[in-house]
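re: the backbone from monday

yeah here it is again, tokenized this time
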């Protein structure tokens, strides 16, 4: 009986250990939308911004155009609006041994906005990036522990039980794998626009966020070429942005002149590219738009 129990224990422990070690060392982009960004080495060229650039700018297209090792270190409007937390994380991720990088800073009215209190003070909440001190280790135990990444999801993905709705590529590009028809896109666009109008009803241009956008530009200019890019959206989203912050393009043009960086404004091309929710480009459109940007960079 004792021998049987030992054998049974061995049979149970081996697959558990295998899954555990696999989870730690091969945690892939189907399981967690951030981990592969947080566990990659320091980077000499980066795409920076919110989910618009996370889904909308594709490093492999930059590679085909001669811009090597461009890494997408964009997150979400909640985690990576321009601010102190994101700035500190970028500094930790930056390879300071290189000075010929390319840094694509994507900008929009919402990423430089903050909610205001009843007495007019800016409310700048901390983000999850403030909790992660180590953004380059692999495996990144700190991230796995603090962000409560679930090991059992690894098994579900391996067994094809959990559907794969996204893929975080090794170069940081976040690809949406869901297929959308035109009707679904219309519904999702209305919902997204309604959500933004509600979220930013009590927000305004933030001195804090503008200040850290300027700090980021100044920091990265020491290590290569810096450009500002406005990613296109749906027509409805773009029109709301213009209503919400009419001075936005003027602000970016002023930054462009002051810090000698180019501002590529593709906002007026909104509606030209398909989005799945009015805010994020579908994968094929993201590739085409990235090529469009690369053509502009060369010119």
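seq for it, each position gets an aa:
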């Amino acid at each position: 009986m004792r021998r049987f129990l030992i054998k049974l224990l061995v049979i149970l422990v081996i697959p558990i250990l295998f899954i555990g070690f696999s989870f730690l060392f091969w945690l892939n982009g189907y399981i967690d939308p951030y981990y592969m960004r947080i566990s990659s080495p320091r980077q000499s060229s980066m795409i920076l911004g919110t989910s618009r650039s996370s889904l909308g700018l594709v490093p492999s297209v930059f590679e085909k155009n001669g811009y090597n090792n461009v890494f997408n270190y964009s997150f979400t409007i909640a985690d990576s609006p321009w601010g102190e937390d994101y700035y500190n994380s970028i500094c930790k991720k930056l390879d300071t041994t290189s000075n010929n990088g390319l840094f694509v800073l994507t900008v929009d009215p919402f990423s430089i906005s903050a909610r205001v209190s009843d007495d007019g003070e800016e409310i700048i909440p901390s983000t999850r990036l403030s909790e992660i001190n180590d953004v380059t280790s692999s495996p990144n135990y700190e991230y796995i522990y603090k962000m409560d990444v679930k090991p059992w999801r690894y098994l579900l993905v391996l067994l094809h039980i959990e559907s794969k709705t996204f893929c975080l590529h090794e170069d940081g590009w976040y690809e949406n794998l869901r297929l959308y028809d035109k009707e679904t896109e219309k519904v999702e666009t209305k919902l997204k626009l309604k959500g933004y109008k509600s979220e930013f009803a009590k927000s305004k241009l933030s001195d804090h966020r503008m200040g850290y956008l300027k700090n980021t530009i100044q920091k990265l200019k020491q290590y290569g070429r810096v450009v500002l890019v406005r990613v296109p959206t749906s027509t409805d989203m773009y029109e709301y942005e213009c209503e919400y912050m009419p001075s936005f393009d003027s602000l970016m043009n002023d930054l462009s002149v002051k810090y000698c960086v180019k501002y590529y404004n593709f906002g007026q091309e909104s509606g030209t590219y398909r989005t799945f929710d009015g805010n994020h480009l579908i994968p094929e459109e993201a590739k085409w738009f990235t090529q469009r940007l690369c053509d502009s960079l060369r010119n």
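The two ends are 77 Å apart (CA to CA). Residues 16-25 have pLDDT under 50 and may be disordered.
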